[in-house]
C-alpha cells in the first residue's frame, strides 16, 4: 500500500468544524494583540513625519530591509556568537520553522484534496520524506526548548526573567511531546507498514513501546483526546505571541526590516527638525519615532548589550537593556492613556535618571551585539540631547562646552596662547 495518512483521520466532522472555529478565534486574539502594539508604535512622533514617513522611506529601500530579514532573521546571523544560547536558538528556530512549514503544506494538501482528490500530494515518496523530516526537526525543536528551560533554572543575570517565560517554554515542550504522542497513537490504530511506518521513527518507537498494550478502540479514543490537547496548545501559542516574550517573533523581524542601515551612527540635529518639532532631543516617550517604539517591543531581554557595555561592566548606573525595558514599560503606561490624561511618571528622572544617560561612553558596543538591531545608543543620545538643550549639562563636560563657546577650545585658553606649547619643542 502507498504510504500516506488521512489528514483528519479519526477526527469527526463536528470536531473539524470546531477546530477551524477555534483557529479563527486564536487568529483574532493574535491580531488583536498585535493591533494593540501597533497602536502604541504609531503614536511615535519622531523628528519629522511618523509612521507614514517610516513606511515610505522603507518601501523606497526595500532591498536592504529584505536582506536583513533574510540574513539576520531567517539566517539568524546576529543570534550566533553567544555560546550555547546562540547555537540552541538556531536549533529551536530551525525546528519551529520546519514544523510551521510542514503544517502549512498539510493544510494546502487538505484544501487541494477538497477541490479534487487528484490534487492531493501527501502520499508516496513525498509523504515518507515529509514525515521523516518533521520527526527529526520536531526533536530539534524540543532540544532547543529543553535547553532554554534548563537555562532559566540557572537564572543568568543579564537575561530578563518573567513568570510567563516558564509557561511559554512549558507550552512549547507540551506541543512537541503531544505531537509525538498523537503520532504514536495514530500508528497503533492505523497500522501502517514498511516505509509508511518507519518514516515516523519517534511515533513508531512510542507505538511499539508505550502504546503496545492498546487495542484499536483504546488507541482511537486516546488519539482523539491527545489530538485536541495538541491543537488547543498550538492555538494557545499563537494567541499568546503578542502578550509574552514571544512578541519578538513578530516585532524582531519587523524591526530588522525597518532598522536604520547605519546602526549607532549619530544623526545631527538639523534646523529643519528643530523648526518642525519645536524641540531638541526627546523629553516624552511619544517624541521617539514609530521605529524606535517598535524596537522596544523587539527586545527579548537576551542581555547581550548589558554584557558588552563598558559602563555597566565598570559599575556605572547604566544598562542598555534596562534603558530599553524602562522605555518599553513607559510606552505601555503612557501611550495607552486617553488623550489629555496625565502621565503616571515622567520620562526624565522618574524613568531614566541623568546619571544613567551621562554614563554612556557612546562606544556603540550594545548596538553592535543586538540580534534584532536595536539602536540603544541613539535612544540614549536622543534623551541626552534634551538634557543639553535644557542646560542640564554639569561637571567637566559642561565646563568644556562653556569654554568651547567662549574661547573656542575646551581649556579656555586665549587665542594668543594657542601655540605656546610649541615653545618647549626643540625645533
Ligand atoms: C527573527 C527571528 C528571531 C530572532 C532574531 C530571535 C532572537 C532570539 C534571541 C537573541 C533570544 C535570546 C536567546 C539568546 O540569548 O540567544 C531568543 C529567545 C527565544 N526565542 Fe527567539 N528569535 C527569533 C525568532 C523566534 C522564533 C520564530 C521562535 C519560535 C518559537 C523563537 C523562540 C524563542 C524562545 C522560546 C526563546 C527563549 C526564551 C527564554 O529564554 O525563555 N524565536 N530569541
Ligand atoms: S554605547 Fe553606551 S550603552 Fe551602549 S555599550 Fe557603549 S557605553 Fe554602554
Ligand atoms: S536591546 Fe538587543 S541586545 Fe539588548 S537585551 Fe534587548 S534584544 Fe538583547
General description of the model:
There is one protein chain. The chain is an all-alpha fold and 427 residues long. 63% of the residues lie in helices and 0% in strands. Helix 15 crosses helix 18. The N and C termini lie far apart (97 Å). One iron/sulfur cluster binds at residues 308-311, 318, 320, 360-366, 376-377, 380.
- Major sheet details: none
Structural class comes to mainly alpha
Number of helices: 19
Q: What's the CATH first level of the largest domain?
A: Mainly Alpha
Number of strands: 0
In total, the number of domains comes to 2
Proper CATH architecture of the largest domain: Up-down Bundle
Helix content: 55-70%
Uncertain runs are none
What does the average pLDDT come to?
93
Strand content: under 5%
Within CATH, the superfamily of the largest domain carries the name Transmembrane di-heme cytochromes, Chain C
- Indicate the radius of gyration in whole angstroms: 28 Å
Beginning-to-end CA distance, first to last residue:
97 Å
Amino acid at each position: 500500500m502507498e504510504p500516506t495518512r488521512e489528514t483528519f483521520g479519526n477526527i469527526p466532522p463536528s470536531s473539524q468544524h470546531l477546530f477551524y472555529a477555534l483557529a479563527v478565534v486564536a487568529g483574532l486574539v493574535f491580531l488583536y494583540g498585535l493591533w494593540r502594539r501597533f497602536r502604541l508604535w504609531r503614536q511615535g512622533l519622531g523628528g519629522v513625519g511618523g509612521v507614514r514617513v517610516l513606511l515610505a522611506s522603507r518601501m523606497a529601500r526595500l532591498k536592504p530591509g529584505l536582506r536583513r530579514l533574510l540574513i539576520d532573521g531567517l539566517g539568524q546571523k546576529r543570534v550566533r556568537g553567544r555560546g550555547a544560547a546562540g547555537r540552541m536558538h538556531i536549533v529551536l528556530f530551525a525546528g519551529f520553522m520546519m514544523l510551521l512549514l510542514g503544517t502549512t503544506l498539510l493544510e494546502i494538501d487538505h484544501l487541494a484534496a477538497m477541490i479534487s482528490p487528484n490534487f492531493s500530494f501527501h502520499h508516496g515518496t513525498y509523504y515518507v520524506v515529509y514525515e521523516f523530516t518533521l520527526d527529526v526537526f520536531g526533536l530539534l525543536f524540543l532540544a532547543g526548548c529543553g535547553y532554554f528551560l534548563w537555562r532559566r533554572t540557572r537564572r543568568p543575570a543579564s537575561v530578563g526573567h518573567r513568570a510567563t517565560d516558564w509557561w511559554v517554554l512549558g507550552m512549547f515542550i507540551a506541543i512537541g511531546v503531544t505531537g509525538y504522542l498523537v503520532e504514536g497513537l495514530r500508528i497503533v490504530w492505523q497500522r501502517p507498514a514498511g516505509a509508511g511506518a518507519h518514516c515516523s521513527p519517534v511515533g513508531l518507537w512510542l507505538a511499539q513501546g508505550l502504546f503496545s498494550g492498546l487495542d484499536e478502540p483504546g488507541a482511537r479514543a486516546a488519539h482523539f483526546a491527545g489530538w485536541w490537547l495538541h491543537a488547543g496548545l498550538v492555538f494557545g501559542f499563537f494567541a499568546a505571541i503578542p502578550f509574552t516574550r514571544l512578541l519578538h517573533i513578530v516585532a524582531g523581524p519587523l524591526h530588522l526590516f525597518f532598522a536604520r542601515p547605519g546602526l549607532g551612527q549619530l544623526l545631527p540635529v538639523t534646523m529643519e527638525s528643530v523648526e518642525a518639532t519645536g524641540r531638541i532631543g526627546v523629553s516624552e516617550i511619544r517624541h521617539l519615532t514609530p521605529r524606535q517604539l517598535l524596537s522596544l517591543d523587539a527586545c527579548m531581554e537576551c542581555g547581550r548589550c548589558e554584557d558588552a557595555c563598558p559602563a555597566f561592566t565598570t559599575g556605572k548606573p547604566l544598562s542598555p537593556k534596562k534603558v530599553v525595558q524602562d522605555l518599553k514599560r513607559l510606552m505601555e503606561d503612557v501611550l495607552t492613556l486617553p488623550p489629555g490624561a496625565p502621565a503616571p511618571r515622567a520620562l526624565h528622572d522618574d524613568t531614566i535618571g541623568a546619571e544613567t544617560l551621562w554614563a554612556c561612553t557612546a562606544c556603540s558596543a550594545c548596538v553592535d551585539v543586538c540580534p534584532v538591531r536595536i539602536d540603544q545608543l541613539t535612544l540614549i543620545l536622543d534623551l541626552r540631547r534634551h538634557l543639553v538643550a535644557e542646560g542640564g549639562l554639569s561637571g567637566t563636560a559642561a565646563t568644556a562646552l562653556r569654554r568651547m563657546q567662549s574661547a573656542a577650545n575646551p581649556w579656555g585658553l586665549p587665542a594668543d596662547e594657542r601655540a605656546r606649547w610649541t615653545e618647549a619643542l626643540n625645533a
